[in-house]
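Hi R.,

Here's the chain you asked about this morning:
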Amino acid sequence: MAEHAAEHAAYPVGLRLSGRRVVVLGAGQVAQRRLPSLIAAGADVLLISPSATPSVEAMADTGEIRWERRRYEAGDLADAWYALISTDDPEANAAASQEAEDHRVWCVRSDDAEAATAWTPATGHSEGVTVAVLTGRDPRRSAAVRDAIVEELRDGTLAAPHHRSRATGVALVGGGPGDPDLITVRGRRLLAEADVVIADRLGPRDLLAELPPHVEVIDAAKIPYGRFMAQEAINQALIEHAQAGKAVVRLKGGDPFVFGRGMEEAQALAEAGIPCTVVPGISSTISVPGAAGIPVTHRGVAHEFTVVSGHVAPDDARSLVDWPALAKLRGTLVVLMGVENSGAIAAKLIEHGRPADTPAAVIQEGTTAAQRRVDATLATLGETVRAEGVRPPAVIVVGDVVAIASPTRK
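And here is the predicted structure, written out as tokens:
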């Protein structure tokens, strides 16, 4: 039967293994790669192997699979629906393969594809779609084709006809710190499915140019708001477009819930009965320092980091930040929207005990082609920002982590 199968193209089929016995012989790298998919399919997995990789052992320890620490024995496949043979013992593999043949159990062999009665395709997933690719005896080509299809499904390049994957409503999408490649896969897919996109100035603008012509793109900064406050006008625009039956994406810079007023918009949508999906984004609080070579934590240097907004000066009555308490911390301080008040922030930290020679850096337009880093100390931060003409958007980092791999400080 194996020889006959090898002469013809494989017949593709999806196995429904939930609750059905699957026997895996061997617990090396092959099993480590295949077991997660079997577990996700709900299979009743019996692993037979005298030893296992740490990852496979962890699956057994958590009860995801049952592991018998021994070698293959005749009769092990009697109750199986499917078998994966991947031991390093050719004789055991051949015997198990013959047992599978005798019991009509579909069998995959990692050591001899020609002797197997089933082949494992290169598989990938994207929002409920499973892509499985077989290219005969060329697994690398299978993987390459799989990757190309899945990537295009995820970023919307391959527009597979389907009913909407989500109901009309609003998706609050975190666009990341600026580089269009740093938006999440889900965020990019929702953009590709949108009818209306309401975008912030700090969102990844390059992505907007990729949208189809029918998509209405609205600059949130230019929404007329008359008697409304700007945020209320944005909320109202989201509601109106969603109530018109449109799929709306609110594209925000960074993460919607990190100084992005995302929760205000989510609450307004909830009050209006509009379905809302929140898609987290890569926050500039960590990614921008990282892109400039600054880790916000580092062993032996900083065991914590604190993120604050600097859009309100420390002595302003509206400030909610406990600056004296922050000055006493030893870890990293990350300040967003603090360019204008950088001097006042630095002075307040020094006043309450943070050493004046603490390293500091300002990263302007982080992760974009225009990114630049300006180094200083806490004492010279405000002066340096003014002298260098630093403009928003910029992230300020204060702490010893700045000096780990920094150029000569100013």
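One quick note: Confidence is low (pLDDT under 50) at residues 1-6.

Cheers,
M.
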